[in-house]
Amino acid sequence: MSVFNQPRKRVIQMIILGMVILIITRLFFLQVVEKKYAKLADANAVLRKVIYPSRGIIYDRQNRSILGNDVLYDLVVTPASVKSIDTGYLCNILKIDKEEFRKRIVTAIIKNGRVRQSVFAPLLAPEVFGQLQESMYLFQPGFELVPRQIRSYPYSAAANILGYIAEISPAMLKDTGNYASYNSGDYLGFTGLEKTYETVLMGQRGIQYLIKDNLNRPQGAYENGEFDSAAVAGRNLRLSLDIELQVLGEKLMKGKSGSIVAIDPQTGGILAMVSGPSFDPNLLTGPYRSANFSKLYTDTTKPLFNRAIQATYPPGSTFKPMIALVGLDEGVITPSFGYPCGGAYYGCSRPIKCEHHDAGHAANLRLALSHSCNSYFSHVYRLSVDAAKFGGIKVGGMQKWADYMNNFGFGHKIGVDIPSEGRGLVPDKKYYDARYKGSWNSCTSVFLGIGQGELLLTPLQMANAMCIVANRGSYYIPHFVASIDNDNTHLLDKYKQKHEVAHISDTAYSAVIHGMTDVVESGTGRIAQIEGISVGGKTGTAENYGIVNGVRTKLKNHAVFVAFAPAEKARIAIAVIVENSGFGAKYAAPIASLMMEKYLKDSISTKRQPLLKTVMETVTIDQAMLAKSHLDSLNQNAVIKKNKP
To answer: Of 155, 302, 290, 296, whose CA–CA distance to 633 is shortest?
Structure first.
């Protein structure tokens, strides 16, 4: 060989020698130094058993458990160990055929391989578990019963708030960023508080290694539990929610479509959030979850849709207090400002008719609020956006008005601690420029002054606005979770921060609050009176349009009512929407009043029991829609299945 090839030969030899030394060193470490892997490698007779942690409990503001844990069993399979079993008998117990049996085995192999456990039949019904438990020796070593904690709901309420848990999907498992700590078969929160606080509630799974005998039966801990890891329970949540108030709200909304949102203005803690129609959350737990979910998903009344945070509505006359605050802050009106209204607003090119003809009903702000005068607030809106100091509506007036609304929490997500919150819509200069190609003025958008037009708000945003009024210009982000047990996170920090709104004067807020108390004392909202408690409120009737056979059609109005009490230092602020039910004072105001009375007095007075009964028994959902709904039968079945021995 040429002398020139000698250095190259030595380099190759050194590389090969280095690789051999590295491999030998690693093998020595694994087999001699590191005892753990050596022992586990020898453990063909060792069973690896996952210990699922107890998921965190959720309590209401009175420390009542509103979400707990029950135990069901999964039947798991290790495909490589399935040998010489009575397949027909197992299929008979599980009520499946042999083709389905083979399909599940193949699925288990694809998901986790032949030598690792996979769920073969999840969350067994009690009667199925009983049969299997008696006969498990016939199906071992390939099959095993593994306990699995599921959620239980003792009050059968707050389904859209609490959310539900389900098995992690294959698509999620591929997302190693967000779901790196999960394995196939794990359960996690999919909606509601279960999803938002998943990292708090989930806990940490444990592993137990057991010795098996020659018949693959567990005989005890392997190496005295040296390699076991204990499961760590999830942490508990303490809510601001009052479960008794929530249950009352769901009863009041039975047979109705709409929502109730009640907030403590002093903390931002949500006291109740009802989306009607609601459903029993026990439907989405246990062996019937998948079937029930499919029925709820296709139900014509949309019980899975959380109207309190996802639906948007024109607020109607409930928006007038906010119009008044802007006018007062900009200085275009004073509390004594009056407007002559004879049954229509004539400030634009066409008369805009309203309900009031009596003289003097809009002689000042308080009277205009208590009588809910459309002409008055249409005019105040135009004065605000056309103000010369902002250069008129197209220069800065419209945008300034939109900024006020954004500060009030409209047109964007507020940040509530459950997912899927809607934004609503506050039209601004950019919106109107795009829609009308620059050809628009304050008469184009005049209906904003009475909470109509393009304006859309969520019930949560309306309730939060009442917190701002009641607090005279401040609020906390609405939230459910008041505290977390043994909390070492900063998840709740943002809910403790007080937010100031637009620095509107206390005098302006006082004028509006006086007008809103007049609404309940002597105006359109008298039905909302509570004996011994001053209430500030505002009725609203939101016009409702829909597309029928391709044509925009006027439908029955939505009833709206917003309020807070006691008016001098509010402990509860509330917004109620009852869809397609007419005037706000007819159903929305009584519901709000009964909810406030229950919270503030802990009971409903005897003389108001007939009103309570009437509201509970009233059905406002279209009968044709109810006829196609699965909801009532589903809830009845839930009770039967929950109580089944």
So the answer is: 296
- CATH of residue 74's domain is 3.90.1310.10
- Structure tokens given for 264: 């403590």
Q: Which residues of 617-644 are buried (b: 16+ CB within 10 A; e: fewer)?
A: ebebbeeeeeeebbbeebbebbeebbee
Q: Does an H or E element contain 514, and which?
A: helix 506-521
CA distance linking residue 622 with residue 548, whole number of Å: 15
| 53 and 20 inside one domain | no
Whether the Cβ atoms of residue 425 and residue 454 lie closer than 8 Å to each other = yes
Query: What is the strand order of the sheet 536-548 is part of?
Result: 270-276, 258-263, 572-578, 551-565, 536-548
Q: What is the 3-state secondary structure (H, E, C) of 531-559?
A: CCECCEEEEEEEEEEEEECCEEEEEEEEE
CATH number at residue 361: 3.40.710.10
| Residues 314, 458 contacting (CB under 8 angstroms) | no
- What pLDDT is stored for residue 115 in this prediction? 79
Same domain, 577 and 453: yes
Domain of residue 448 covers 309-483+496-605
Residue 276: count of CB within 10 angstroms of its CB: 24
Whether 194 and 314 share a structural domain: no
Specify if 633 maps to a domain.
no
**HSE of 309 in the Cβ direction (CA atoms, 13 Å)?**
20
Q: How many domains does the chain have?
A: 3
The answer to whether position 641 is within a domain reads no
DSSP designation for 46 = E
Residue of 414, 407, 315, 326 lying closest to 365 (CA atoms): 326
**Torsions phi, psi of 311, nearest 5?**
-80, 145
458 & 595 share domain:
yes
Provide the mean pLDDT of the chain: 88
Q: Using one digit for the tens of pLDDT, what is the confidence trace for 16-58?
A: 888 888 888 877 776 666 655 555 555 456 767 777 788 999 9
Q: What DSSP string runs through 189-258?
A: E-SHHHHHTHHHHS-B-EEEEEEE-TT--EEEEGGGGTT-B--BPPPPEEES--HHHHHHHHHHTTT--E
Q: C-alpha angle with apex 302: 299 to 304, nearest 5 degrees?
A: 105
Instruction: Kindly state whether residue 625 falls inside one of the protein's structural domains.
Output: no
Q: How far apart are CA 77 and CA 183, in angstroms?
A: 15
C-alpha to C-alpha distance for 115 and 77, rounded to whole angstroms: 9
Say if residue 432 is exposed, middle or buried (CB neighbours under 10 Å; 0-12, 13-18, 19+): buried
Element holding 120 (H helix, E strand)? strand 118-121
Q: What is the pLDDT of residues 428-465, one digit of tens each?
A: 999 999 999 889 999 999 999 999 999 999 999 999 99
Spatial distance between the Cα atoms of 541 and 531, rounded to a whole number of angstroms: 25
Q: What is the pLDDT of residues 581-628, one digit of tens each?
A: 877 678 999 999 999 999 999 999 999 999 999 999 999 988 777 777
Give the relative orientation of helices 87-94 and 126-135 as an angle to the nearest 10 degrees.
Answer: 160
Kindly provide the residue ranges of all beta strands, DSSP E only, lying in 153-189, ordered along the sequence: 165-167, 187-189
Alpha carbon distance 190, 325 (integer Å) = 40
